[in-house]
Amino acid sequence: MKLNQWIGAIVLALASLQHGPRRDERGLSQSTENAILVAGAVVVAMALVGAVVAYVKVRLPK
């Protein structure tokens, strides 16, 4: 091997060691998706409860 090939191999090895292993970041997006779905379910449930309460209050005799 020539000197510049050795230097290139050493630089490549050092660059790959600096970054370390890649992270598996799928957990965060899955948690975020679950939080959004739960928040949406809560909003829908609150809207339904509010509509039922309003309907019952209007229909109750005074």
Structure commentary:
There is one protein chain. By secondary structure, the chain is mostly helical. It has a domain of 34 residues. 82% of the residues lie in helices and 0% in strands. The protein has 2 helices and no strands. It is rod-shaped.
Order of helices and strands: HH
Instruction: Please state the overall shape, judged from the principal axes of the Cα atoms.
Output: rod-shaped
Q: Label the structural class.
A: mainly alpha
Number of helices: 2
Largest sheet: none
Strand content: under 5%
Helical percentage: over 70%
The average pLDDT value, as a whole number, equals 83
Strand segment tally:
0
Extract low-pLDDT stretches.
none
What is the rounded distance between the termini?
97 Å
What is the rounded Rg?
A: 30 Å
Key attributes of the depicted protein:
62 residues, mainly alpha, 82% helix
Question: What's the layout of helices and strands?
Answer:
Elements: H1 3-19, H2 26-59
Short summary of the structure?
With 62 residues, the chain is mostly helical. It has two helices and no strands. It is rod-shaped.
